[in-house]
Design a protein that fits this description.
127 residues, 48% helix, 2 domains, single chain, three-stranded antiparallel β-sheet, alpha+beta, 3 strands
Length: 127
């Protein structure tokens, strides 16, 4: 009846058609399912991002350490060292196991006044 009384029939005319109750329920179910899936995927992504960020952080730390060592041509070492106080020069020298002077500084008054093992002055001839 509409087609007989209209001025012009329109074959493929688009418009917003209200959803039926069954269609509305189906869309809500699809939205719920997609939301849960999205949440799960985002959680997986967070975990993966954290793992990659940790790897990146380790690499950056390694690079920073290597760059520092290349710039200074040294590495921080903690080992047994030996301190000598020169009363004449009033200086303190710290030597490593190889006998290399690694630090020298002025002696403090306290260091100069402290009793030391004075008889241990070795000349190297009778040691």
């Amino acid at each position: 009846m509409l087609s007989d009384n209209c001025d012009k029939p329109l074959e493929d005319y688009g418009y917003e058609k209200p959803l039926s109750k069954d269609q509305l329920k189906a869309v809500k179910d699809r939205l719920s399912s997609a939301s849960v899936s999205l949440h799960d995927i985002q959680e997986e992504k967070k975990e993966a991002d954290k793992e990659y960020n940790d790897k990146i952080k380790d690499c950056k730390a390694s690079i920073a350490d290597a760059v520092k060592q290349l710039k200074t041509r040294t590495t921080y070492t903690c080992e047994q060292c030996f301190q000598f106080i020169d009363d004449v020069e009033k200086k303190v020298g710290i030597y490593n196991r190889e006998g290399i002077l690694i630090e020298e500084r002025p002696a403090t008054i306290k260091e100069l006044r402290e009793p030391r093992n004075m008889f241990a002055q070795k000349t190297g001839t009778n040691d």
